């Protein structure tokens, strides 16, 4: 018997009945509850720990503390822990997602967008999730990279953690390694801070770790990403449909694509927008871009997640400033409104999705490995307005210093060619 459970009993024996009545201790499977603290022990034989974790959320998910302090928890089934209120989640060990890919493909919880699913949906009000820089979510992603074998958005690959319908919450000091698909998504949420987050999804063979975005946001307002380290094979941080008032600060990106606005405009006739985004004080090491913007064309081709187009709306008031670039492989700035079903080309002037008031700089320094500082292809049917490139003279290229543009209204820089 666990000795910590003896204490209240002993107190009772000694006649501290008042004290005993204040201590509410209970066991439920592998969960020990003391007052509003639930501590989850891991199974000794490596069987699924998700039921015990769900029980802990049920018992302590309101005004409580959930302690995941063992070195390893096996997660073999989906978890939905939503509707939490004023809860602290304290993770000291690793949560390792299971290898039964057949199960996960058929059992993920729907995101309700882009046909994506998640392995863990977490939501509620006033959640503080602390990982102390050691608590780790390990998606066992290599198996998924091998399964997908480079195929984009392989159906049923789950997002590791979905923060959904959450308000006024903090995620801090959490590590995410080898995520199955996107590491995280934030959806239908407001006033969320995610800081001190380490993401590393790296394939150990020649198959790419594709679609392992650090995080994607949807239908969310006032989200702050601070002090992220991202190593992965796709967007570091991507802001998608109806993301507003987003701040990204003090982060380091290794490889991958950089900060993405989009892709967006994928659903025919649907209105979506992105407004007020600042990404600042970022170190990008070997990333493809500093910041880039991507919309689908105005002519739908196929269906989401890998096809689509024809969406309307706008992205405005977006700033990428104070970036240090180390061997960024492609461009500081990129806009494309030409995204279409894989393999489809053309229709690049058809998007009605309006891009405006987008600024790269000031404070961008370092090196890129091409001669094209910026490649900006705006749609002829919705030319871009208010595009600024500030202080690019501090970026070293491999030769020429091209700024390629199409359909930019009154550019305040010299376009050296079209695209
Ligand atoms: C592992 O332990 C759990 C209880 O913790 C039990 O239900 C399960 O049957 C055990 N599995 C194996 C394979 O021994
Ligand atoms: C994997 O999951 C599938 C679908 O849930 C199930 O039928 C199968 O028994 C599982 N395989 C193992 C080895 O547990
Ligand atoms: C979102 O969470 C709030 C409480 O935090 C709840 O009242 C509401 O029903 C939830 N909405 C959905 C769609 O789950
Ligand atoms: C690659 O990762 C897989 C899955 O985690 C592992 O089984 C394998 O040993 C690793 N291979 C190398 C070469 O590290
Ligand atoms: C959506 O995902 C499911 C599996 O979660 C898959 O069966 C289906 O083919 C996917 N649909 C599209 C259009 O990709
Ligand atoms: C940034 O996050 C890392 C963990 O990824 C942590 O070790 C470090 O202390 C954090 N830095 C600050 C200034 O909070
Ligand atoms: C990312 O993970 C890989 C594989 O585990 C490791 O070799 C690499 O050093 C990590 N990168 C960073 C920047 O932590
Ligand atoms: C724009 O976002 C910033 C955070 O980057 C926030 O401080 C500011 O209040 C937002 N502006 C509006 C009008 O909401
Ligand atoms: C996005 O937000 C706008 C403005 O609030 C709203 O009109 C639109 O319906 C939202 N889009 C979706 C897909 O919900
Ligand atoms: C536009 O961006 C600036 C700088 O980030 C911010 O201060 C301002 O509140 C934003 N305005 C709107 C309307 O989003
Ligand atoms: C773009 O910026 C200009 C000048 O700052 C401002 O007048 C205009 O309202 C902004 N447009 C949008 C759509 O935010």
TrEMBL record:
TM stretches of this protein: none
Record's GO cellular component terms: extracellular region
Localization in the cell: Secreted
Gene Ontology molecular function: polygalacturonase activity
Signal peptide feature range: 1-28
Record family assignment: Belongs to the glycosyl hydrolase 28 family.
PANTHER family documented for this protein: PTHR31736, PUTATIVE (AFU_ORTHOLOGUE AFUA_7G06410)-RELATED (PTHR31736:SF8)
The protein's name in its UniProt record: Polygalacturonase
């Amino acid at each position: 018997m666990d000795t910590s459970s003896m204490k209240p009993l002993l107190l009772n024996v000694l006649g501290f009945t008042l004290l005993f009545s204040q201590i509410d201790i209970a066991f439920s499977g592998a969960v020990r509850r003391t007052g509003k603290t639930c501590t989850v022990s891991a199974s000794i034989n490596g069987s699924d720990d998700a039921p015990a974790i769900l029980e802990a959320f049920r018992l302590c998910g309101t005004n409580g503390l959930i302690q995941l302090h063992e070195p390893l928890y096996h997660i073999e089934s989906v978890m939905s822990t939503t509707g939490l209120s004023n809860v602290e989640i304290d993770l000291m060990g690793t949560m390792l997602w299971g290898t039964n890919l057949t199960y996960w493909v058929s059992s993920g919880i729907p995101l309700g967008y882009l046909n994506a699913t998640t392995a863990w949906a977490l939501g509620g009000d006033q959640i503080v999730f602390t990982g102390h820089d050691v608590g780790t979510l390990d998606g066992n992603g290599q198996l998924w990279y091998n399964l997908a074998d480079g195929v984009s958005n392989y159906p049923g690959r789950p997002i590791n953690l979905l923060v959904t319908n959450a308000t006024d919450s903090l995620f801090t000091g959490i590590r995410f390694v080898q995520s199955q698909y996107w590491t995280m998504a934030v959806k239908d949420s407001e006033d969320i801070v995610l800081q001190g987050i380490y993401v590393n999804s790296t394939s150990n063979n020649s198959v790419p770790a594709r679609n392992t975005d650090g995080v994607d946001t949807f239908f969310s307002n006032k989200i702050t990403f601070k002090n992220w380290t991202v190593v992965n094979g796709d967007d570091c941080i991507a802001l998608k449909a109806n993301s507003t008032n987003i701040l990204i600060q003090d982060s380091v990106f290794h490889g991958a694509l950089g900060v993405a606005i989009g892709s967006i405009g994928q659903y025919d006739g649907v209105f979506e927008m992105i407004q007020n985004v600042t990404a600042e004080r970022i170190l990008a090491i070997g990333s493809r871009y500093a910041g880039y913007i991507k919309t689908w064309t105005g002519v739908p081709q196929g269906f989401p997640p890998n096809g689509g187009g024809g969406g309307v709306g706008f992205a405005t008031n977006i700033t990428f400033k104070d970036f240090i670039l180390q061997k960024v492989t492609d461009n500081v700035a990129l806009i494309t409104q030409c995204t279409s079903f894989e393999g489809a080309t053309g229709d690049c002037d058809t998007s009605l999705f309006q891009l405006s008031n987008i600024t790269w700089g000031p404070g961008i320094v370092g090196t890129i490995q091409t001669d094209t500082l910026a490649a900006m292809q705006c749609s002829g049917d919705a030319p871009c307005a208010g595009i600024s490139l500030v202080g690019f003279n501090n970026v070293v290229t491999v030769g020429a210093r091209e700024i390629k543009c199409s359909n930019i209204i009154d550019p305040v820089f010299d376009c050296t060619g079209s695209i």
